[in-house]
Amino acid sequence: QTPHRDRPPAYGQVTTGPIEGSHKIWSSPPDRSDIRVPFREIPLDPSANEPPVRVYDTSGPYTDPTVQIDVEHGLPSVRSSWLAKRGFSQVADVRAVKPEDNGFAGEKQLVASCPAPHEVLSGGKAKLVTQYEFARAGIITEEMIYVAHRENLGRAEMVEGAQARRADGEDFGAEIPAFITPEFVRSEIAAGRAIIPANINHPELEPVIIGRNFLVKINANIGNSAVTSSAAEEVEKLVWSIRWGADTVMDLSTGRNIHNIRDWILRNSPVPIGTVPLYQALEKVGGVAEKLTWGIFRDTLIEQAEQGVDYFTIHAGVRLQHVPLTAHRTTGIVSRGGSIMAAWCLHHHRESFLYEHFEEICDIMRTYDISFSLGDGLRPGSIADANDAAQFAELETLGELTKVAWAKGCQVMIEGPGHVPMHKIKINMTKQLSECGEAPFYTLGPLTTDIAPGYDHITSGIGAAMIGWYGCAMLCYVTPKEHLGLPDRSDVKVGVITYKIAAHAADLAKGHPAAQIRDDAISRARFEFRWQDQFNLALDPDTARSFHDETLPKEAHKTA
Amino acid sequence: QTPHRDRPPAYGQVTTGPIEGSHKIWSSPPDRSDIRVPFREIPLDPSANEPPVRVYDTSGPYTDPTVQIDVEHGLPSVRSSWLAKRGFSQVADVRAVKPEDNGFAGEKQLVASCPAPHEVLSGGKAKLVTQYEFARAGIITEEMIYVAHRENLGRAEMVEGAQARRADGEDFGAEIPAFITPEFVRSEIAAGRAIIPANINHPELEPVIIGRNFLVKINANIGNSAVTSSAAEEVEKLVWSIRWGADTVMDLSTGRNIHNIRDWILRNSPVPIGTVPLYQALEKVGGVAEKLTWGIFRDTLIEQAEQGVDYFTIHAGVRLQHVPLTAHRTTGIVSRGGSIMAAWCLHHHRESFLYEHFEEICDIMRTYDISFSLGDGLRPGSIADANDAAQFAELETLGELTKVAWAKGCQVMIEGPGHVPMHKIKINMTKQLSECGEAPFYTLGPLTTDIAPGYDHITSGIGAAMIGWYGCAMLCYVTPKEHLGLPDRSDVKVGVITYKIAAHAADLAKGHPAAQIRDDAISRARFEFRWQDQFNLALDPDTARSFHDETLPKEAHKTA
Predict the structure, then answer these.
(1) Minimum distance, in Å, between the CA of residue A447 and any CA atom of chain B
(2) CB–CB of A520 and B484 under 8 A?
């Protein structure tokens, strides 16, 4: 009877419909009915005599049965009216799509471009463009009001106990308030401690804030298939990731059709989309790193900026002088971006063009309010290489670049490792905070041991929970296929749920005032044998229900 | 070509044969060819130019192709010649099996008793019986020599770098030596900081040491099926758990046939077997807690002692005065043993018979060298109840009982929670060490959030890794079916592998001198694209290989 949503949707479709046992609601901040913030509400059995449990919801309009989903039309606009008032200009000479943007895909292989309408804006002539600039100018944007309401969840009703819950946690110097106000959001962004990745060309976005004084966020990576049968198939990867809780999604596609697929993804994405523009630039020069030029890279930034990408990974911290530091490593340079830039630097024996042109990169990214995700190209790929000279030298450079980007008005977060044993995790967080002026940290795992390929969602989930507790703002997921192959639908779900566990465990440990509401509700349900409530309150109701039904299939057992 | 060992064995059989890509070896300590310690060696590709990697091996003779396995004969004896010299007497009047021992199983339902020969010993008249007594007397037993050799793995060859590796770790006051000597083992046991659970009636045992200055151990729980089709089916649960790395196994069977099934398990177990005698005692009184008596409980202890159970969970810390402390909990008393004893205390309104007869329990357990696992009957069942007054009051009682048991010559470890958010884990470890005189801690998880039924191996794996790092000596696994149903074969494997990850991550973080050898070997294999080596060095070679083959099935890709 329950639709088993782990089955892929029909051809040309994406997964829609409520998450089992819950419904979508939209809620507006006081006096701002123009701002509609999504939540999910889980009603409980009447015997519980408790209000529904409200949870954070990343799933977008896809879980709202009242919204007609058609990937060819794209999602409804959330931000257009806000953006319209900011003095941005419509770009008349939008960059034309070139054959190399889609990897020279032939007529038969070419995925058509997304027909959803898309007006390209530029903030070039506006005085204030980025959320950072608005925040520094003391201006609270609609995005700030939106995320404040979103972060509070049900906290309006429980401010009373909030201080006690805060005091009960251990937050390692974070300053989570009992209640999030728009002004608090503004002040955190102005201080560089938080970002709202929100390209002005991504009006479909439901804004999300990333910073250590907010709920810990998670990212899921997706990429195109070698053979794409339909654009919906690629959009579905996004929809599936956000259905289970991905706060942002990185599109790491390579090869053919990546420009057009990116278009489909952006027009249908309620979450911030990140990319690594270097990957596409490399495709344009036939995969030969030394052929990369600043001109090709710059053109790729404009291409993706106009499409609406919300954050770019920029590996500008891999400097020529750092490369020799990796010579005696066990696993060398494992970051793809890091390898590309190291190869380029060594071949030309000159400083990285990303480092040399960093200010111009800032100018471009500021024009569209694309956030920096300063890449850790020298992250350790093994326990043996954790916290070595190469890794920390790059981190210091990232700290230097953070200040440049801020001076240019940009939003910035910093990428982090990688493979790190438990006892070496905390210093990563401490050092990142001090080197990078408290800019949000965004880490991959870290994996706490190298010996469990096939289970690296778990080896890394341990490290992710810990670094999230210590202050990491966003955790990039790792799936069971890490090191072995490409994740399928099931791997993506397991990766996302594992990272939701890590992020939530971190929120609990930090003493986030609203985090424990859901734990308490599910624990009461468990104690009272309200099985349906226990399933519905779970991060993955479908799996909880099916595991239970395997051994105790009778309906009667679920309410007894 | 690779046998897919996740398939259950044929009727009447158990899983045998080497773990893919490795072979069993037996190694003797210097001058002690009578002591044969098992390891597993993983040979590497000749291109690596590296010696085989030696790893700890819990799998028993089942992975040795030279041993003929027949569950009706039981395993070869490891300890008989050692035990023969200790002056123990053969029990003439062995306790006769009673109908209630097997839950009054009728003729048709009765699983036959195991025909393997079993001589029952009693240490009652010997001056020294337990490993603790020998250690205190300054005597090094064969078991101590065995575990010293076992713990060292390949460390003989790398003592040189050991101090540096130790210094690189963070062990929170543990004192892991660069090299484990039998004398060090003796001194740790004498101090109560470590135990070797080893009933004198379990000669098939391959001794294992549990203590925070040794490798972190894991336990898997098994239990009988409602309908047992063959005794081998029950033995297979043990075999399957130890194949993937369980260091000890608890038999939590209930209902029919439990006496006879326990016999089959013990005669075929190379690892220590733990039980909760209270469960069987309750069966004998028809499941009605208040009908329990000291006499029935005492008789059950003798019954299981003579069979050879290596450690007993004894819930003697649940005192009458503690029960009211749980009144306002979110999830009350979730431990089965705790609930039974609380019900008994409340019904009779008197002190627990386990607490009142604790010295007699010690005398019985000392007679056979059964180790105490002092149960945490009041462990928290939810984040809300973590570290509350009830939990810590019980822990203080356990500390008091530890000293009583030591004075009686018994080996002791202490069970711990449960559900605990990350920031409240460390105090559990610190308090356990101080209250219980550094007796080994043995925890269930802890689960770091309540909201992910279906994934509680992960919510708890996070907590397990952390508490293992802080000093917990053994981690009791949790499977994906926790809270939902009974684990199947696949769940058991996932639970064991998850806990091997947690234990190994802890060993790395503590700076265990030999732990990183395997990480380094797999990382070099990864860097050099030696795929077969990477699979074979993995905790689960079969899964790593099959995940890889799903996306890149060609043989060529694995050596390229």
Answers:
(1) 9
(2) no
